[in-house]
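INFO batch 0412 | record 1 of 1 | parsing
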Amino acid sequence: MKPFWLALGIACVVASLGYGEKPASTAPSQKPEPQYAGKPLSYWAARARARGWFSNWPAAVSALGEIGPAAVPALAELLKDKYAGVRQATADALGRIGPEAKATVPALTELLHDKDWKVRQAAALALGKIGPEAGAAISSLRELLEDEVWVLRPAAATALAEIGPAAVPALTQLLKDKTWQVRRDAAWALGQIGPAARAAVPMLTELLKEDETSLRRIAAWALGKIGPEAKTAVPALTQLLKDKDWQVRRTAAEALGRIGPEANAAVPALTELLRDDYRDVRRAAGDALEKIKGAKK
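INFO prediction complete | emitting C-alpha cells
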C-alpha cells in the first residue's frame, strides 16, 4: 500500500504548487469596440457600406456620427462613395463630431468641388463645425462664397466665420467682390468673428456708402460686433444715423453703442435720434447713449 500513499502525497504537493494550471495571460486585454444602440462600430460601418433596398445606410451613417471620433476613419472612407447622398450624409455626420474630425479636412475640402451642390453645402458646413482646425480649407471656401448656386454662399460664410481669425484676410478681400450679395455675406462673417476682424474695419466702413440698403445695415452691424476696435468708423456711422431706412439708423445706433466711449463724438446725433419717428430707433439711440455716456433715457 505504501506506493499508493506515496503517489497520493506527491499528487497533493503538485496540486498545492499550482502545477498543471494554465499560466495567466500577460497580453493586454483588447479595448471594447464603441457601440451605438447596442451594436458595435464595425456593424454600423458594414451597414453604411451596404447597398440595396434593405441596407438602410442613412441610419448607419448617422449612427457612426453618434459614435463620435472613433468612427472618423470609417466615415472618411464613405466620403469617397459613388452616391451623392452618402457623401452628403457622411459630411453631416463628420460635422456633428466637430474638431475631432480634423483628419478629414483634406477630403471635405475636395468635396467643396463636388458636382452635387448639396454635397458641397454639407462639406462647407462640416468644415465650419471642425472650426479653426479647418484653416486649410479657407481658399476653397472663399471660392464657394462666389458660387453660382446662391444657397451655398451662406454655408461658406458660416464656415469661414466658424474657422475664425485665420479667415479674416480672405473675407476682407471679398468685400470688394462685384456681387453685392457676396460682399454682404463676407461682412456678416467678419461680424461673427468679432474683434479679431479689426483689420477689416476700413473696408467695412466703405460699405456704409453702398446703395444697397441691406449691405449698409450688415456693414454697420459688423462694425458694432467688432466693437471698440472699430472706433475709426464712428464718423461714418454717425452719418448713417440720418439714413432714409429706419433699420439702418437703428443698426448704426446699436453699433455706436457697442463701440462705447470711443463713440463720444456721436452723442449729439444720437440725442437728436431720440425724436425719431420709429420707436425701435429711439430705443437704440437711448441704449447707445447709456453705453457711451451712462446717460439716462
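INFO post-check: The CA atoms of residues 167 and 231 lie 22 Å apart.
INFO record closed
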